[in-house]
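Case study B.
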Amino acid sequence: MCGIVGYTGVQNGAPILLEGLKKLEYRGYDSAGIAVIQDRTIHIQKVTGRIANLCEKTQDGLLTPGCTGIGHTRWATHGAPTDTNAHPHASNDGRFAVVHNGIIENYVELRRELTEKGYHFESETDTEVIVHLVEHYYHGDFQKAVMKTANRLQGSYALGIICADEPGRVFVVREASPLILGVGIGENFFASDVTAMVAYTRNVIYLEDGEFAELTANAIRVFDCAGREIPKQINRITWDIQAAEKGGYDHFMLKEIMEQPRAAKATITPRIQSGQIQLDDLDLDFGNVRRILITACGSAYYAGCAGKYTIEKLCRIPVQMELASELRYADPLVDEHTLLIVLSQSGETADTIAAMKECRRRGAKVLAIVNVVGSTIAKLADYVLYTWAGPEIAVATTKGYTTQLLVLYLFALYTAKKLNTIEETEYCRLVSCLKALPKQMQQVLDMNPAIPRLAKKYHQAYSMFFIGRNTDYAVALEGALKMKEISYIHAESYAAGELKHGTIALIHEMQPVIALCCNESVTEKTMSNIIEVKTRGAEVLAVAHRENQKIVSLADDMIYVPKVDPLLCACVEIIPLQMLAYHVAKENGCDIDKPMNLAKSVTVE
Ligand code: M6R
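Model:
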């Protein structure tokens, strides 16, 4: 929920920290700070608000010279977003500074204990206990103090710690929060995410939970929790640095919407050879699977909702959906015959990780569909299918969601073939439909120049309804979430047939209805619901393919999509809804890439 970064080397550290923080700002952006060591003194600068404020305050880092430092961008959990609560936090003697991503669950007890020992607390954060513990345990051995401190902490934490007495040395610790080390030449780095370091190095080390490391300019040493040095593999980042830049678009979200056809191709193409789906990483005994449970949060959960229809239809296996935040405490009925599919763009979502661990403990095999290579979820799973969407920066997911859908489609077809639940001709037909999707995703981007105009018409709505049936309903869930999270307009997603069971009471002239009508198996039915809401005065914006003349004549406004098989249409149908949400948010002057109160990666419960 926060982003941390650190540097030690020969360059002036602050500008590098600030650049890194800008790349991590998607993780949290209510306050930020850096700490740099100069002349054996730690200099800390903190601000409320965005990294831009910190750059201004430090004159882009020039006011804080020094070759070793740490930085933080915050998404507040404990304590309001103020300068005082911003990280880095310093020890009472000023010798140590710490940045932290995660939550210290036993901070109340630790705070009481430290207060009794005479330590003085400046902030309301859980983090501050860490730096006082380091001071408490320090008797000339920095490493020992860090280890003793880590042993006292419960919860999740990625930490960066510096000591004024040892200017070229940084310690980092990882427990259930992302932390990656960057291996440079004569300089080394750490960050919550590689995007913060990739401008300087493509060689990285992934730390595991319970490990800690010492960084100096010329070396990185990694230790297990008992302090034994352990060998680590250096991994090479292969994606293009521009993939993490805006590339001429006004917003990352727009860039990422536009990238979807390319991302789709990268997800599908290598996995279809001579008309056959190859999922080499999925060495699963399908005969043993009696049911599938899909879990995730937010959009990833909604991708699962759409994928469920395709899997059940093709594989004839019952698929149950559970929100990860519910599943983890649900005492779930899971055993060794359950395949748990976990969906996550970041691979670091705390609730998803917890649900996954719980189900594994009860015997389930876990297939993770993730975007970030080396992420916690990828590492914990029995099988991993990457979505290959490239880095996703905007808080609102777009290409992350559509590539998750595509992997679910691949999985459904692959499994159906394994289980013999699909005829060969149908299999071949659907595989060629799947191969056509990247092109159709491009078509949908090209064929809707009217969306900005529609956004001008609908942007003042106080609330909207998104309705549909079957896969159209699953897309309604995601469409409404996109509208809510970036435009702050209330949006309700509803199974079209349910309206008359209560919520139709809310329909009136000021309540636009977005009707999703792409799944041909149910469009006739949805059309009767369109008539019901129109009778009550609502304006209807329908999403359908051009040939469906009945809908064209019923709806007030149309968004067109190409005709796609109902089992695969969700990943095309969502794209105009992403665009609509984007343009409505733009009309309303919202901060599209960093919506209020949100963060990209929800690494706390
Ligand atoms: O990284 P994850 O896919 O696990 O994230 C899950 C949700 O937090 C995420 O999809 C969230 O709902 C998005 N901001 C929606 O756009």
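The chain has three domains: 3-243, 248-434, 451-587. The remaining cases will be described in the next quarterly update.
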